[in-house]
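Bench notes, bay 3.
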Amino acid sequence: MSNASFLEIALASPFNYEAAKAYTYAIQWPAFWISIAYIFVIFGIQNYMKDRAPLDIRLPLRLWNLWLAVFSIAGSYVTTTALFTEIRTEGLASSYCYAGNFFQGTPGLWTFLFCMSKVAELGDTIFIVLRKRPLMFLHWYHHVATLNYGMLTYADGTAYNTWIIWLNFSVHAIMYSYYFLAACKIRVPAAVAQSITFLQISQFIITHAVLFHVLYLVATGTPCHMHGLTYTYCLLMEISYVYLFGLFFYQSYIQGGGKKYQREQAAKKAAAKAE
């Protein structure tokens, strides 16, 4: 059980990885129950809003996406430097087989903040239901799955989280920047949204490659910092993500010409008629 608080761990210098793992282990069950409560809350709000007008919360939405964009950009910068330093000094396989310097010092702090941010990111869905936007299974499912995966594997010291954290930070840096621009009513081509979805799918495919190589290394006698149960969780989660995001990509950008492109063209025609 950790005696240190979140702020004490986040503000400590140097960063104490063992204290962070102990803290994460201590809040695994609270985080799980938060994720369950989150499901009831978002569907409760959705039901409450059913016969009400969408809330005009553009300023809070802009600020929300702005802080997540800035946070993700900073996290991507720190973890990119750390991961490729690890690859250069220790080798590619070592970067996802051994929990090394990536989890120490400044990058270690950002891996901890990444894990904790998955609780904060549940707030994304509150904006969706209050604005009466479509709530997809993919959206709330991946929030719940990722939050609980992060809590379980951070406490376990899972080595291949180096790549998962780096990939997620980097994709989110682009994604939340796009969301911020959209919230500011800055028109961005549908091709940008398509590219972001493609990047999301790509990160899951890269993660599959890492997971399969880790499995090969372990099967051939190389000891890796991983645990069978959470490895299985991760693999099944990543498979489900590829399927769900792939289906979303197909329905949004390919099937029937793509719903998002159709909306973009309709918006352009409406703007042209207004002029």
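Next record in the batch:
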Amino acid sequence: MAVGKIREKFIIAGIEEYSRRLRPYLKLEIREGTEEKIPRHPSPGQVERILAIEGRSLLNLLPSTAYVVALDREGQMFSSEELAKWLGELVLRGYNQIAFLIGGTLGLSPEVLARAHFKLSFSRFTFPHQLMRLLLLEQLYRACKIQRGEPYHW
């Protein structure tokens, strides 16, 4: 689940490609929440309001039984192999729905972060939230390949 719609054609093409590649491994559903317009120099109150609106939108999309993973720069980092192992352990523990949440330009609201079972970081870098969707799908595909012992080459 992510805030906003993807506009860039090259990102859409990448998302479509990795969605296609993931089909043999898992059921993938991408849900898009509300993305609020951000003023050029938002006040702290405006930032709080925007985060709250986007956060409620994401929370409303969540299946009630999902294990919730918030993508957050302050979260835990994994190697691709560690991510594959961690995801496999979640499945063994009985989680058949894992919801990854990607915030908008301002990130995720405190309410969303509090709802998350786990916070995952891809890097201490800041990535555009639209590109983050593509990066997440690529890493999920890589994790599936690793779990099955299949080669992953370009």
